[in-house]
Amino acid sequence: MSASEPTYLTWPQIARLGLVQASLGSIVVLTTSLLNRVMVVELALPAILPGVLVALHYFIQLIRPRMGFGSDQTRRASPWIRGGMLALASGGVLAAASTILLSNSLVLGVALATIAFLMIGIGVSSSGTALLVLLAKRVEPKKKAAAATCVWLMMIFGFAFTASVSGKFLTPFSFERLFMVSLTVSVIAVVVTFLAIWKMESPAILSQGLAIDLEPSPSKASFREAFAEVWKESRVRSFTWFVFVSMLAYSSQDLILEPFAAVAFGFSPAETTTLSGLQNGGVLTGMLILAFVTTKAKSQTLSTLSNWTIGGCLASALAMLGLVLSGPIANVIFFKVTVFLLGIFNGAFSIAAIGSMMQFASVGSERREGVRMGIWGASQAMAFGLGGIIGTGLSDIARIVLGNPASAYAFVFFLEGVLFVVAAYLSYQTRSQTQTNNMSSHLVGV
Predict the structure, then answer these.
(1) pLDDT digits (tens, 9 = 90+) for 170-180
(2) Number of structural domains found in the chain
(3) Which pLDDT score is estimated for 215?
(4) Does 243 share its domain with 339?
(5) What is the pTM of this model?
(6) Which end of the chain is more exposed for a tag (fewer CB within 10 A), N or C?
(7) Looking at 199, 231, 259, which one is the last position of a domain?
């Protein structure tokens, strides 16, 4: 192997990184779902409390660019993954402990829960950003979409497996059982993470012709200087807005699709749960289709995944229009097919977007993959943090104005469709700016 040939990750190594994402997901699902339910039901606390705590863990992720900058400076992602997972696991255990404290002291319990969710957000920021940086640097270009699919499916597996197994160990429920389950899951997640990334970035591997390690280290600029330097890149700004707008559209319908099915079609709770499974099945199908198609392609350019991203956003907009029309059409089959197609298009565009993120992260004059990935990760976190609030808030306002719940939800679906169209334009703009910059670079070289 020549010194100029990069050493890419193999599929077993990518799967190992998927285990890290599954470990991350296993802790997050306990804190954002199970503890949410415990606070509202068992402790009879206002639903706003867990809502604010979950939003807090998203908003603290504005520190992602700083975490990515640290990864750039050290030229290693593994320490940030390990440190982030330790912080995340500690936050998960403290969050469970806070439920015990809440039953005795509201003030102390809320204080501990606040610290816990801040640690969770910091841990996700560090480990999640560093993991994406490692994938961006060391996954073969044509495998990036498939690698993103593998890693995200492992995270979904972590969600599902942990929720299923922990539910069995929590019967009969007690706060002590909750603490022990959380502690066990956190310890297992840390052990799995440390084993998964063991020797992933060892000197022996990095010296085997790894092109990115042969390049000079990034300049010893401060974080403020590095951030300003990256933010000057027009494609970084456009892609940041794309991530925010597309993920806002993606997440805003999560909390209103099932209520819409109930008021427009009279779905029972069991039927709405089945509907959620239908949509998630579509998401999985879209991810797998895109991963298969892009992996089989003979070549992969920066514009290839961008085309899939743009197409997925426009198709998602059409699916949103289908949801708007499903009420007047009043056909259950049409509605279910639309939901399934929405899942497919969402899955395809989200994986294409993550793959594009991994490719765009390495485009630039300085090796600032971590800062770029951190900016986009923070943008995504903000979108998810605001998505549920905006979606439900707009539906409440529209219900007051329109006087009909089904029409109110349909109005929000329409706005989300518009957001998907805007996201498609921003993705196109990012691609155009990248092509223009590349052409300018070639002309300068000539």
Answers:
(1) 888 888 999 99
(2) 2
(3) 47
(4) yes
(5) 0.84
(6) C
(7) 199
